[in-house]
UniProtKB/TrEMBL annotation:
It is found in: Cytoplasm. It comes from Meridianimarinicoccus marinus. Catalyzes the reduction of the glycolytic intermediate dihydroxyacetone phosphate (DHAP) to sn-glycerol 3-phosphate (G3P), the key precursor for phospholipid synthesis. Residues 359-380 are annotated as: Disordered. The gene is gpsA. Keywords: Cytoplasm, Lipid biosynthesis, Lipid metabolism, NAD, NADP, Nucleotide-binding, Oxidoreductase, Phospholipid biosynthesis, Phospholipid metabolism. Signal peptide: none annotated. Sn-glycerol 3-phosphate binds at K123, G151, T153, K215, D268, S278, R279, N280. This is Glycerol-3-phosphate dehydrogenase [NAD(P)+]. The active site is at K215 (proton acceptor). Residues 21-170 form the Glycerol-3-phosphate dehydrogenase NAD-dependent N-terminal domain.
Length: 380
């Protein structure tokens, strides 16, 4: 559904954007979002579990562990006390790793002000249940509008004030459709709108979530093949066919193609697959160069969501009968001991098919392609 309203509707219909935002999770992205919300003029409380991290943010306006050398605005009330973080909050952003969501819901439940909207800013699918994170939060926290905030947003760049955009999606009920400017998505977008941070509004929560979860797995594939010495053609192939996988999964769950071609889908896929600033791309690159998996995680106290979520993405895809060969290859290499070169070689040797999947063509491929490392190795 196209959302048919103008920025004026938001400004005049918002009935006041939330003026107090609680951010749960003081890692790189939580701290960057707290900084954005502060720059947007909001009162911001930031919950983190490490007392030294929250002290430094609160007293020195710095976050040397997660965002070194990034000056933060004054006035972020960082705390390890969940009750204080959520007291008086009118909206909350959940920004801890996807695997912690269930536990975080249990932890915030006793302190949540009644009915406030919660935007999930982590990217993944729940392991074991194969559920989208919004479903996990809805089950755990009934009575709260649950949405997602996602897009091409490296935390450091957003915190430094580089122009950045993201999608904020919440389900629209009948009242929201009549007065879209008063919907949780629009009100939160207004609250986070800052000189260099531009939120777009959507009602396609599942489309946004699928984009965020799948792009990380595809970025690991791009990294693996880049590390193995392949170059731009291969990366473009993986990005484009990765987007086809993302689209199939999103559509099968009720998401929309325009969401997948937007910021939280194509936008984030392009960003994450283009740069070793991405932890997912960078993990893949190390593996592609032949580094052992355990060695890649040494000294890396950060979350690599594509590695965590490859099995759950495949679990969900299998449950709904969607073919995702690139994600399956990444999952097989990461978690099932499959050899990388042979696994990707099999991808290129699959039966030829129509590009859109609607032609019904499938031809067995007479050529056995190779994914062996090319002769000319890239500079390290
Ligand atoms: N860093 C980015 O550029 C970026 C941008 C957009 C979205 N995200 C997403 O945001 C989420 C968080 O990523 P991040 O970059 O902030 O991670 P991070 O590694 O920088 O920080 C993770 C934070 O979560 C906390 N944490 C870890 N385990 C926890 C647990 N069991 N309970 C409570 N807290 C726990 C850590 O203490 C830390 O504060 C991820 O899903 C990521 O994909 C990250
Ligand atoms: O560093 P990554 O790979 O976790 O990516 C961070 C964000 O998701 C980019 O939007």
């Amino acid at each position: 559904m196209a959302l048919d309203f103008t920025p004026d509707d938001i400004l005049h219909g918002a009935g006041g954007a939330p003026s107090r935002i609680a951010v749960i999770g003081a890692g790189a992205w939580g701290t960057a979002l707290a900084s954005v919300a502060r720059q947007a003029g909001r009162g911001v409380t930031l919950w983190g579990r490490d007392a030294e991290v929250t002290r430094e943010i609160r007293e020195d306006s710095r976050a040397s562990r997660y965002l070194p050398d990034v000056p933060l605005p004054d006035g972020i009330a960082a705390t390890t006390d969940m009750g204080r973080a959520l007291h008086g909050a009118e909206a909350a952003l959940i920004v801890t790793p996807s695997a912690t969501l269930h536990a975080m819901c249990d932890q915030i439940r006793p302190h949540l002000p009644k009915g406030i909207p919660l935007a999930l800013c982590c990217k993944g699918i729940e392991r074991g249940s194969g559920l989208p994170l919004s479903q996990v939060a809805e089950d755990a926290l009934p009575g709260h509008p649950i949405g997602a905030l996602s897009g091409p947003t490296f935390a450091r760049e957003a915190a430094l004030g580089h122009p950045t955009a993201a999608t904020i999606a919440f389900p629209f009920n009948f009242r929201d459709r009549l007065h879209p400017g008063q919907s949780p998505a629009a009100r939160l977008a207004l609250a986070l709108s800052a000189p260099s941070f531009r939120p777009y509004i959507s009602d396609d929560v599942i489309g946004v979530e699928v984009g965020g979860a799948v792009k990380n797995v595809i970025a690991i594939a791009c990294g693996m093949l880049t590390g193995a010495g392949f170059a731009e053609n291969t990366r473009a192939l993986l990005i484009t066919r990765g987007m086809a996988e993302m689209t199939r999964l999103a559509l099968s769950l009720g998401g929309r193609t325009e969401t997948i071609s937007g910021l939280s889908g194509a936008g984030d896929l392009m960003l994450t697959c283009s740069s070793t600033t991405s932890r997912n791309m960078s993990l893949g690159t190390q593996l592609g160069r032949g580094l052992a998996r355990a060695a890649c995680f040494e000294g890396r106290p950060v979350v690599v969501e594509g590695e965590v979520n490859a099995p759950s993405v495949m679990d969900l895809a299998t449950r709904v009968g969607v073919e995702m060969p690139i994600c399956a290859a990444v999952n097989a290499v990461l978690h099932q001991g499959a050899p990388m070169e042979e696994t990707f070689a099999r991808l290129w040797s699959r039966p030829l098919q129509g590009e859109s999947g609607t032609l019904g063509v499938s031809l067995s491929n007479p050529v056995s392609h190779s994914a062996r490392r090319p002769q000319a190795k890239p500079a390290p």
